[in-house]
Design goal:
Helices cover 64% and strands 4% of the residues. It is mainly alpha-helical and 364 residues long. The strands form two sheets. A two-stranded antiparallel ribbon has the order 1-2. Strands 3-4 form a two-stranded antiparallel ribbon. α3 crosses α15 and α7 packs across α8.
Length: 364
């Protein structure tokens, strides 16, 4: 085991090695050689394994977190009309965009299993008195996501597509939105330095907002566009980096996957764009091709690979690890490392960001 793991728990060290071993045991050599090199690049393999651990932690956290009716988080009385309206508004607002996400993805679903998973995006039935008394069962993290979507001006501007228009959000207002966002990240960073539970919560909160809205990744791309005097960006590359991509894998299977490699994509975006400048995709972007194929490995490891006894790896991970293990991992794999706290908002970069947001935000 490499020296940087010395502060991780034994369980996390064992799981990293388990995933590395699984790459050799569970997938064709020609695929792993294509992604990681004929002489395997162990740095790439470690990074990939870290991402899978992150996904397993996110899954474990979600299934282990207690669920409550939304009123549990609001502290209001039945006679408080203002809070009742806020209660209703946050549910309707979030469900509007869950429905939009469902409509977008169901058209691209390639299997009955995928269609079944997408049903989780649909609204919980509230037709009977019993349904309404039970309410919407959500976790603390779910509530945080809902509150962030509704209350953070930047996220709300992105979701509503106002940010793409200089008439709706001026350049000065744009800069103010990001000042508010930077304060939000600062608050999470303080939480990250706290207890085990706070460290895990802060890491997963930042991870969730970044994979959904790609704020740091898009800023990275906008800066590279600025430095290379690019006025356009290839749709295929952008979709592979920050959106949902459907492709036919070299393993001869159809894959539909939304990239959540928030750390790894920021490490390779320079190389992908450099390849694109010299040999435009799809004629030979080696970094992008290997990256996209790694999404196949990630998808299968998350959803299909089993250990002995037919138990999915992610379920066994959830059973075997605890919050202390997850914290030791996040002290090593710091998702906040991709945060650029010194963003330079020139008019050119703001224009690039509007352009990129316009490409990735779905039409309402």
């Amino acid at each position: 085991m490499m020296p940087q793991y010395k502060n991780c728990t034994k369980k996390i060290q064992d799981w990293v090695l388990e995933i590395v071993g699984c790459l050799g045991k569970c997938f064709p050599k020609e695929i792993t050689s294509f992604v990681f090199g004929e002489e395997p690049d162990m740095n790439l393999i470690w990074h990939f394994s870290h991402y899978i651990i992150l996904e397993f932690i996110k899954y474990s956290y979600d299934i282990k977190s207690p669920k409550y009716p939304l009123r549990h988080f609001l502290n209001y009385t039945a006679d408080d009309n203002a809070d009742r309206m806020w209660f209703s508004r946050i549910i309707k607002y979030s469900q509007k965009y869950r429905d939009l996400e469902y409509d977008f993805r169901i058209k691209r679903a390639t299997s009955l299993e995928e269609r079944d998973r997408l049903l989780a995006l649909k609204a919980k039935p509230m037709d009977t008195i019993d349904d309404r008394l039970k309410g919407h069962d959500i976790s603390e993290m779910n509530f945080f996501e809902l509150e962030t979507m509704l209350e953070m001006p930047l996220i709300k501007s992105i979701v509503e597509r106002r940010i793409v228009s200089s008439k709706k959000v001026s350049n000065d207002a744009f800069r103010d939105l990001f000042k508010d966002y930077e304060q939000w990240v600062d608050n999470l960073l303080k939480l990250y330095q706290g207890s085990d539970e706070e460290c895990v919560f802060a890491s997963l909160a930042f991870f969730t907002i970044e994979w959904k809205f790609a704020i740091e990744t898009l800023y990275n791309i906008s800066s590279i566009m600025d430095l290379n005097e690019m006025t356009e960006f290839d749709d295929n590359i952008l979709r592979a980096l920050v959106a949902e991509i459907s492709f036919h894998s070299r393993m001869d299977i159809d894959v539909s996957y939304q990239c959540r490699m928030i750390v790894e994509r920021n490490l390779i975006v320079d190389d992908i764009i450099e390849d694109e400048l010299f040999v435009p995709f799809p004629y030979g972007n080696d970094y992008l091709d290997r990256y996209v194929e790694s999404l196949t490995l990630a998808c299968l490891l998350k959803e299909q690979i089993q250990i002995e006894g037919g138990v999915l790896m992610k379920d066994y991970f959830a059973e075997q690890t605890k919050v202390h293990d997850w914290t030791s991992f996040f002290r090593l794999y710091n998702v906040f490392a991709i945060h650029d706290k010194e963003k330079e908002w020139t008019n050119k970069r703001i224009k690039n960001m509007r352009y990129l947001f316009g490409k990735v935000i779905k039409e309402n």
